[in-house]
Amino acid sequence: MGLASLALVTGCGPTQAADHESDVGKPPSADIGKARDDLKKLAVKGRAPKTGFEREKFGPAWADVDRNGCDTRNDILKRDLREETFKKGTHDCIVLTGILDDPYSGKTIKFTRGQDTSMAVQIDHLIPLSDAWQKGAQQWSKDKRKEFANDPLNLLAVDGPLNNQKSDADAATWLPPRKAYRCAYIARQVKVKTKYALWVTAAEKAAMDGVLSSC
């Protein structure tokens, strides 16, 4: 799932294992350079009001937008976990167990599907939906918002409590506690904002630039 990999855009693929390893540390210098260049091109504006934001405006949670028979949450679990097991009869769609090498904390987390255990691993929108809503997504069509909410480029399996801590914060107010991952995190956020023409606030841009300058 490395920044240099097209698998981020297309979802699961034969490069899954290599991608996972490359995303653990810092991204290649070429990706950092591109992120810096792309960041300079992003529009800088204030936040639009959050008025009218609802999760449903981005479509049903975890739709099967790529029509591979699996919902997006299970696609991302399958991509980001290792040693997965699957529910029988689901064509390897429903992940039952697996191990996450959490990029945000550096911890190893055992995932077990269940009412009381599933949320130990959550799927983070690197650019939160409400943040996107306040920085351009209000003007999108329903189909584009649904695409954004399920785009593998903007999704990452992470430690559940940290995802809750992040909530809808942007880079100005929240960064992964694991400093070794911040370069990859910001570079990927810039890539998402560039792809969808979302703007940044001045504080957000300064925070992003500060991280990229340290890479």
Automatic annotation (TrEMBL):
Residues in GmrSD restriction endonucleases C-terminal domain copies: 71-208
One family name in Pfam for this protein: GmrSD_C
Domain of life: Bacteria
InterPro entries in UniProt: GmrSD_C
Location of region: Disordered: 13-33
Protein name as it appears in the record: GmrSD restriction endonucleases C-terminal domain-containing protein
Originating species: Nonomuraea recticatena
